[in-house]
């Protein structure tokens, strides 16, 4: 019988697989162009600024990726962490607003 993975386990596997798939050679790092292509394809609504060169350069600087260096998985993970933290904050605010509305009814 096949192993049944949880949604969270599948999400982690998807992140790792997508990172490796972004490189035609399955390298441990991505070029800036490979990273930009992956982000534009996989995170188009969360990372809108990566679509142009200026936005990509700003994002790479924020991730502390040195110019001319590859983007390592830890750099990508830093972006995922930042996006997940922002999403958590948005959802937390929604819950607080809903709770306030419930208590006022």
Summarize, please:
Helix content is 65%, strand content 4%. With 105 residues, it is mainly α.
Using the CA coordinates, give the radius of gyration.
17 Å
The averaged pLDDT comes out at 84
- The strand line-up of the biggest sheet is 1-2
Helix content: 55-70%
Structural features, described:
GO terms for molecular function: calcium ion binding; calcium-dependent protein binding. InterPro entries: EF-hand-dom_pair, S100_Ca-bd_sub. This is S100 calcium binding protein V1. By secondary structure, this protein is mostly helical. 65% of the residues lie in helices and 4% in strands. The chain contains four helices and two strands. Strands 1-2 form a two-stranded antiparallel ribbon. The N and C termini lie far apart (50 Å).
Keywords:
2 strands, 105 residues, mainly alpha, two-stranded antiparallel ribbon
Topology:
Elements: H1 7-21, E1 29-30, H2 32-42, H3 53-62, E2 71-72, H4 73-104
Antiparallel strand pairs: 1-2
């Amino acid at each position: 019988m096949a192993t049944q993975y949880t949604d969270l386990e599948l999400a982690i596997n998807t992140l790792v697989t997508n990172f490796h798939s972004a490189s035609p050679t399955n390298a441990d790092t991505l070029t800036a162009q490979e990273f930009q292509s992956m982000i534009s394809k996989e995170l188009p609504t969360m990372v809108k600024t990566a679509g142009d060169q200026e936005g990509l350069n700003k994002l790479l600087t924020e991730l502390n990726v040195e110019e001319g260096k590859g983007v390592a998985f830890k750099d990508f993970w830093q972006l995922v962490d930042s996006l997940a933290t922002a999403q958590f904050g948005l959802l937390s605010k929604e819950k607080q607003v809903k709770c306030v509305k419930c208590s006022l009814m």
